[in-house]
Amino acid sequence: MKKTLVSLLVAVMMVSLFAGCSSKDSKTESSDTGITKMGLGHITSIAKSSDMGKDTDGKVAPAKGQVDTVMVAAAFDKDGKVVKVSIDNAQVKVDFTEDLQVANDLTVENKTKVELADEYGMIKASSIQKEWYQQADALGQWMVGKSMDEIKGMKTKKVDDSHPSVPDVAELTSSVTITVQDYIGALEEAYNNAVEVGAGAEKLGLGNNISISSSKGLGTKDGKEILPMAQVDTVMMATTFDKDGKVVGTLIDNAQTKVSFDNTGKVTSDLNEQPKTKVELGDEYGMIKASTIQKEWFQQADALAKWMAGKSVDEIKGMKTKAVNESHPSVPDVAELTSSVTMTVQDYIAALEESSVNAK
After folding, report:
1. What does the alpha-carbon distance between residue 53 and residue 265 come to, in Å, rounded to a whole number?
2. Distance separating alpha carbons of residues 182 and 220, to the nearest angstrom
3. 43: which strand partners?
4. I need a labelling partner for 131 at 20 to 30 A (CA). Which of 118, 124, 173, 211 fits?
5. How deeply is 149 buried, as exposed, middle or buried, from its count of CB atoms within 10 A (0-12, 13-18, 19+)?
6. Within a 10 A sphere around the Cβ of 183, how many other Cβ atoms?
7. d(Cα 297, Cα 64) in Å, to the nearest integer?
8. In whole angstroms, what is the distance from residue 331 CA to residue 342 CA?
9. How far apart are CA 60 and CA 51, in angstroms?
10. What pTM did the predictor assign?
11. Would you give the distance in Å from CA 95 to the centre of its chain?
12. Three-state helix/strand/coil letters over 280-308
């Protein structure tokens, strides 16, 4: 009888232990997305910029600086397969008048194709009646669960010179007719640049902030000629968040892309060039020469990103800042960043907030 009771007690304990373990394992599995790394990739082109000239009717065709920036935020599992991905494209145009003055409102908000959504208007010419953001989302969903080699191995077809690499796979026939080479290229860059993220990453967001305010028209200053220039500054951020919305990890970059013209409106920049971001430039960016803390831009961006980790968006937005001058209206004024960040941070905080809103 005593032996039977002991056996029964042991059995009950084993069942309880097993149930507890199962419950714990189930909870871990449901909250674990499998994200171990995250990356941010981009491709920038100025190829569609144009000289001032004449159109087919003999009328003046104004000069134009166009900067196309593809942005991809991606999260990967331990095997390098895509867990989450966000794709966007900023097609920003700076137009000039006949006398080579900037025609745009330099203070206007510049939107990406995802932000424009239905306003972008691609659906009018779409054979599948899908807007750009819908096609980009479908492409991203197709990428999930695949390795980089599988994605690069996608079968494609050339439709015309503007569409040299359209998906030719059954799963995307009715959802993607855009050319995809740059999106795959930016994803590969995100993969190659991926960094490890801490435990608990559940969502991934992509944020941006775009300005053309540094663009200039033809003029003079102190007796010297100022030549026309289109400048597009594109802040981009990839961020992972935990279940409580706190930052697990974030990557910050900034593409300061310039298209230069001579005094006749002819483009003098190399249209085949693929401009580098500040992170890609590294020490070549040269900010350290004017830095009071002897830190290059990429080092300051990395320090800011590390400070953001573990904080909520509200905590980050609540950072104490100070105005140093007109070019630096929001420099961190917190002890942890005094010796590591002297750049102005308002655009990076705004992009972080956007990445939170967009996180999925």
Report:
1. 8
2. 39
3. 70
4. 211
5. exposed
6. 26
7. 29
8. 6
9. 11
10. 0.88
11. 24
12. HHHHHHCHHHHCCCCCCHHHHHHHHHHHH
Q: E-assigned strands of the chain?
A: 37-45, 53-54, 60-61, 64-76, 82-95, 156-157, 166-167, 195-196, 203-211, 219-221, 224-226, 229-241, 247-260, 321-322, 331-332
Kind and range of the H or E run holding 314: helix 313-317
AA identity, residue 286: G
Neighbours of 217 (CB within 10 A): 16
- Residue 342's identity, in one-letter code, is T
CA distance 100 to 218: 6
**Beta partners for residue 250, in sequence order:** 239
One pLDDT digit (tens) per residue for the chain, 360 residues: 434 443 443 343 333 433 343 333 433 333 378 999 999 999 999 999 999 998 888 888 999 999 999 999 999 999 999 999 999 999 999 999 999 999 999 999 899 999 999 999 999 989 999 999 999 999 999 999 999 999 999 999 999 999 999 999 999 999 999 999 999 999 999 999 999 998 999 999 999 999 999 999 999 999 999 999 999 999 999 999 999 999 999 999 999 999 999 999 999 999 999 999 999 999 999 999 989 999 999 999 999 999 999 999 999 999 999 999 999 999 999 999 999 999 999 999 999 999 999 999
